[in-house]
Write a structure and sequence with these properties.
355 residues, alpha/beta, Spore Coat Polysaccharide Biosynthesis Protein SpsA, Chain A, seven-stranded mixed beta sheet, 55% helix
């Protein structure tokens, strides 16, 4: 609270206490304004004042969380880079797929993350950035062992010194990539998951779309066309969707389909972004687009924040059909239906009350 808040809160508290002790004083005060039901007015004003203070304190608390995550993020990047900067500088690209870096958040994923690593490297991708969000199981040991197993890969592990939840890992990724993308020698940034829910084979679809787009843009440049126009502009990002071809979307629980459909409607109302699968994770983003994006959300609101910035910066995007492997493990760990309620509450708070 600032001084003004303290003065208002102090004197209003004195007024409420005095009114409770001597109701005649309150009756005489409100008669000046020709108000007979003084008790109702007192209750209504008190509720408004309390709500105002609650939102003010919640906003300050949220900002403090952002600053804490920012501090932890910078510490993780600084510590790793001082130790591994020579490995980055000496790594040389040998294939088109070396233009992509995979970014994977991990928290207590030792049972699945090893399979995800093997699958990515078996598809001939060679660059991965892991954000270990203070895992309490053997996740870090698995990552270190895999790093030794693949010495010819660019295997980066950034560890938070305390748990900030997976969504806060976004900030660590973005800060790291924005700062060192030249040294990493990359062109595309891939969001991927550690619970073996995403299929690496879908990357071939992403790459086909990207290469077709590169050919189209090169042709326009040869013809001296203005590629800054929306129609000619290259795509800024490619976004997964389970519903591009809705009849092919399999193994999605009915309850989840309903929740995702409602989310799509809410996203269009609040953010004016037309995406068929709004709470997305599997994405491929170009580095120029990445430089514009600034995510601050520590919670699940990060996806809505991204949708909002897609609209704000007029980013051109294309939805790509993917195949999601729903398992009891992934549904239990990250995909609880109750999370949608938390997301909607957070969305309303951030959109209307957060300043």
């Amino acid at each position: 609270m600032n001084i003004l808040h303290m003065i208002v809160f102090f004197w209003w508290s004195i007024f409420v206490i005095a009114s409770a002790i001597n109701q005649n004083l309150l009756n005489q005060f409100w008669m000046i304004f020709w108000i007979a039901r003084w008790a109702d007015v007192l209750v209504y004003i008190s509720l408004i004042v309390l709500f105002y203070f609650y939102i003010t304190l919640l906003n300050n608390h949220t900002k403090d969380k952002y600053q804490l995550t920012r501090l932890i993020s910078r510490q993780a990047i600084y510590e790793w880079y001082n130790k591994e900067k020579e490995n980055i500088k000496n790594f040389k690209n040998t294939d088109y797929k070396d233009n992509f870096v995979f970014n994977i958040r991990v928290y207590n994923e030792w049972g699945k993350v090893w399979a995800v690593i093997d699958e990515i490297f078996s598809a001939w991708f060679r660059k991965i950035v892991f954000i270990n969000d203070w895992s309490q199981d053997n996740t870090l040991e698995v990552l270190e062992a895999k790093k030794q197993q693949y010495p010819d890969k660019l295997f980066i592990i950034l560890s938070h010194i305390t748990n900030r939840w997976g969504w806060a890992a976004n900030q660590t990724w973005y800060n790291f990539i924005k700062k060192y993308w030249d040294e990493l020698k990359i062109q595309r940034f891939v969001w991927f998951d550690s619970d073996w829910q995403m299929d690496i084979k879908d990357m071939e679809t992403f790459i086909d779309r990207i290469r077709n787009e590169e050919v189209r843009v090169a042709h326009l440049i040869d013809r001296k066309q203005d590629i800054t126009k929306w129609k000619n502009k290259p795509n800024d990002l490619y976004i997964w969707s389970r519903f591009v071809y809705w009849w092919k979307a399999k193994d999605i629980p009915k309850t989840r389909r309903i929740i995702l459909y409602i989310s799509k409607i809410v996203t269009r109302i609040f953010y004016w972004t037309k995406v068929s699968d709004p709470h997305i994770w599997y994405r491929v983003i170009s580095l120029p687009a990445l430089r514009k994006i600034n995510l601050t959300a520590d919670g699940m609101h990060y996806a809505n924040e991204l949708n909002e910035q897609i609209k704000k910066f007029k980013m051109k995007y294309e939805e790509v059909p993917v195949h999601i492997r729903y398992t009891d493990y992934s549904l239990r760990k990250w995909q609880k239906n109750s999370n949608s309620i938390k997301l909607w509450i957070e969305m309303i708070y951030k959109k209307i009350f957060f300043r």
